[in-house]
Specification:
Helix content is 41%, strand content 20%. The strands form three sheets. The chain has a five-stranded mixed beta sheet with strand order 6-5-4-7-8, sandwiched between helices. The protein has a five-stranded mixed beta sheet with strand order 11-10-9-12-13, with helices on both faces. It has a three-stranded antiparallel beta sheet with strand order 1-3-2. A hairpin with a 3-residue loop joins strand 9 and strand 10.
């Protein structure tokens, strides 16, 4: 009698339960009206399902307001499971611990020697994760998975491409190596995609179904969100906006082409333009601070970078027609000094209808975007069945 057949009432009910759990898991917290809009289920069905999920401990319901009216906010239970985010940058390692209700429980960053090998970096990550887990008193068995961010393209097998910024990492499989060290499932993606996910779930991308997150740092990349999902392409290289050609006679790029967008905007090419005025130790954050304080040279360089980024964004607009572009990385701190030139270029080079629909905004999360995106990656990749059937980490060894 307990067998579910396709199309039966029990299988339909199960599918509806999973649909509601999926919507809440991806958004963090939704009102019942938002769940109905997101899932296409009727308000009455959603109300019944939320009551059932609350009774079995899968979700928490708290009073809130929506549009000035009283409402009920639904989120996954805080003790339903734990997710871990690990972000490797050009000069840092950042780790965050969160729960399935999208609450960040602990977070810490430390400098990372840029010349460190993959083994050294992963050892540091393992140590920092275990330290934070111990400090928060979390049972390792509660961990659903780890999201891992790296600054370079990842192929479908999890191998880091040769154009990665971190030397000594090319050709490694950090996903498998970290999974072995921590004995939990690991999901990996590049920093631009995770920045897009972080801003989509927690920051300046909230409410946008189609957006591009642009990160300008040691390289230039874009994380693309289409219909609420990260678009990676079949080989994982979608969003390599840094290699749009701006000038066929321009500087030779590390990819082998000439005049790529990256050669006009990445820190390694831009900061030397200011060395004569500010010395060889100038950093991107200091360049931005100087520009905000009125330094004419820094303002000019940032404006030029903005115009070049705008050319690349215009190409994205013409191809994908996103509703929002979020600028991440250190440059976002320059505010209108960089955003106004981006908008100017978009207005000049994009199809007018696409340009009119586009909103260009600074990221809201700063340097935290990628590590929060790593948490969101686990939340988006994990299944829903385990949440309905018991502990989400029931199948994970969890031997931290």
């Amino acid at each position: 009698m307990g067998v579910e057949t396709p199309g039966s009432q029990s299988s339909l009910h199960r599918a509806n339960l999973e649909r509601v759990v999926r919507a809440v898991r991806r958004s963090g917290a939704l009102t019942q009206a938002e769940i109905a809009r997101t899932t296409g289920l009727s308000a009455a069905t959603v109300s019944n399902i939320v009551r059932e999920l609350k009774d079995n401990g899968t979700v928490e319901v708290t009073p809130t307001s929506s549009g000035g009216r009283r409402a009920r906010s639904v989120s996954l239970s805080g003790d339903a499971g734990i997710v871990v985010g690990v972000d490797f940058g050009h000069t840092h390692l950042r780790v965050a611990i969160g729960n399935l209700a999208h609450r960040v429980l602990a977070e810490e960053a430390e400098p990372l020697d840029v010349d460190a090998s993959a083994t050294q970096g992963l050892e540091r990550a393992e140590h920092l994760v275990k330290t934070l887990i111990a400090a928060t008193g979390i049972e390792p068995g509660k961990i659903v998975g780890v999201g891992l961010g790296v600054p370079g393209p990842i192929d479908e097998s999890g191998v880091l491409g040769s154009t990665a910024i971190l030397p000594g990492w090319a050709g490694t499989n950090p996903r498998d190596e970290l999974a072995t060290r921590l004995d939990v499932p690991v999901h990996v993606d590049n920093d631009a995609n995770l920045g897009a996910l972080g801003e989509l779930v927690w920051g300046a991308g909230r409410g946008a179904a189609d957006l591009a997150y642009i990160k300008v740092a040691s390289g230039v990349g874009a994380g693309l969100v289409i219909n609420g999902q990260i678009y990676r392409g079949p080989g994982g290289t979608a969003g390599e906006i840094g290699h749009i050609t701006l000038d066929e006679s321009g500087p030779v790029c590390r990819c082998g082409n000439r005049g790529c967008l990256e050669t006009f905007t990445a820190h390694r090419y831009v900061l030397p333009l200011l060395h004569s005025a500010h010395g060889p130790d100038l950093t991107a954050p200091r360049m931005v601070r100087l520009a905000r304080d009125g330094d004419a040279g820094c303002r000019r360089v940032i404006a030029d970078v903005g115009r070049h980024i705008g050319s690349g964004v215009a190409s994205l607009c013409n191809l994908l027609n996103p509703s929002r572009v979020v600028l991440g990385g250190d440059l976002a701190e320059a505010g209108e000094l960089v955003l106004a030139p981006i908008r100017e270029s978009v207005g000049r080079y994009a199809i007018p209808s696409a340009a009119r629909q586009l909103e260009v905004v600074p990221g809201a999360l700063g340097g935290r975007a990628e590590v929060l995106g790593a948490l969101a990656l686990v939340l988006s990749e994990m299944g829903d069945s385990s949440l309905l059937d018991g502990s989400p980490a029931a199948d994970a060894p969890g031997h931290l």
